[in-house]
Amino acid sequence: MSAADTAAPLVARVDELAPGARTIRIRFWDGSELPSADGDPDAPAVILRSPRALSHVAWRPGEIGVARAWVSGEVDSDGDIERILTLRTRFEGLHFGSAELALLARTARRLGALRGGKPPIPETEFRKDGRLHSLVRDRSAISHHYDVSNEFYGLVLGPSMVYSCAYFADPSESVDVAQERKLELICRKLRLTEDERFLDIGCGWGSLVIHAAREHGVRAVGVTISEAQAELARARVRGAGLADRVEIRVADYRELTDGPYDKVASVGMYEHVGRGELVAYFASVKALVRPGGLFLNHGIARIAPHVKRRPWASDATFLSRYVFPDGELSLLGTAIEAAERAGLETRDDESLREHYALTLRAWVANLAAHREQAVAIAGSERERIWRLYMTGAALAFEAGEIGVHQTVFAIPGGRHGLPLVRKGLLPHASAPSH
């Protein structure tokens, strides 16, 4: 009996629980195949490369088991992972009861998936250590994601080395031009002027502080808790001839005591803070900014209709185990409420949701163009993780499941200097010239 024939009863039960959802083929290691539920011969295929693909799911049913099978390479696609991921919402609410779990176990045993015991967990899965959102554990979580390899990130992000949403004037322009525009947009929203003290919390590889010092003459400090990021950021600062104006530190924002700064930005960092820590986060920022100073917070937000549907803060997800350990997404309103409870005044907000979808698609294309080199640098597991996560994230932004916002806050007690007309905050349509 072929693997497909053996697995057919289990797949049929899935089709009963989620009618019409499985518009994919399933191809097994022996070459046998189950057609899609709608019989489409051109439907994309999920490929099970060995019985161990089922072993992961049998030992850990649910998203974690599937994630482990994907990361280890035991599960693959026929080349178009996006077509398969577009079906992800069709299986939401699918629940395996005791009868289904028993059927899964019997099928796995008949297919030889239980021989040899529990399969090894992929090396790239995050191992928790310490109290949630403590300094020690946050450093571990950040290192897991960002200390992959500067060269790997260079392949994915391109020359801009900016790992956050770009700002496109047109969908056809390059991500590097759009990233340059985003950096300028942040500087203009903060009204940066010559010799102001500017702090970038979570500075990454230094792109924003370099731009702010070069184009606006500020004296900038960038902080990151990634040693690898800091090393390259310092080299880029020296290469730009800005060592007298830009300092890169390895430090957590909670460890900073050298305020006040005139302006502060946090771009793509607050997702790591944790919902329960948001008030303390904004209070820490407020303590670092002079009265009348400005703070720009740029980060991903959940969107209300999808809050209950997707467990963004759950420990039992692909994202939490392999991409952003301990990351938590908040509603925009939750973040703004936390900021205002900490004493900040909300002055401006802009949604960049469509821009992030475009950004991610550019990164996916970069990874595809350099896949062999990416595998050589960071390993096949990391390449598979980033391919899946960035493709899925692009689809989520496009579908309005998550958004991203730039919110400007003012620190009470002084004149903030913001213009009456909002368009005064925006950069020109074309990228700034140097």
CATH topology grouping of the largest domain: Rossmann fold
CATH superfamily of the largest domain: Vaccinia Virus protein VP39
Order of helices and strands: HEEEHHEHHHHHEHEHEEHEHEHEHHHE
* Poorly predicted segments: 429-434
CATH secondary-structure class of the largest domain: Alpha Beta
Query: Major β-sheet, in short?
Result: 8 strands, mixed
Number of strands: 12
Please tell me the total number of domains.
2
Structural class call reads: alpha/beta
**Mean pLDDT, all residues:** 91
Report the radius of gyration as a whole number of Å. Answer: 24 Å
For the termini, the CA-CA separation is 68 Å
Helix content: 40-55%
Please state roughly what percent of the residues sit in beta strands, choosing from under 5%, 5-15%, 15-25%, 25-35%, 35-45% or over 45%. 15-25%
By CATH, the architecture of the largest domain is named 3-Layer(aba) Sandwich
Number of helices: 16
Tell the overall outline: elongated
Commentary on this structure:
GO terms for molecular function: methyltransferase activity. Residues 152-396 form the Polyketide synthase-like methyltransferase domain. It is an enzyme of class 2 (transferase). With 434 residues, the chain is an alpha/beta fold. It has two domains: 3-110, no CATH class; 135-425, Rossmann fold. It is 41% helix and 15% strand. Strands 5, 6, 7, 8, 9, 10, 11 and 12 form an eight-stranded mixed beta sheet that branches. Strands 2-1-3-4 form a four-stranded mixed beta sheet. The longest helix is centred in the C-terminal third of the chain and has 19 residues, at 380-398. Mean pLDDT is 91; it is low at 429-434.
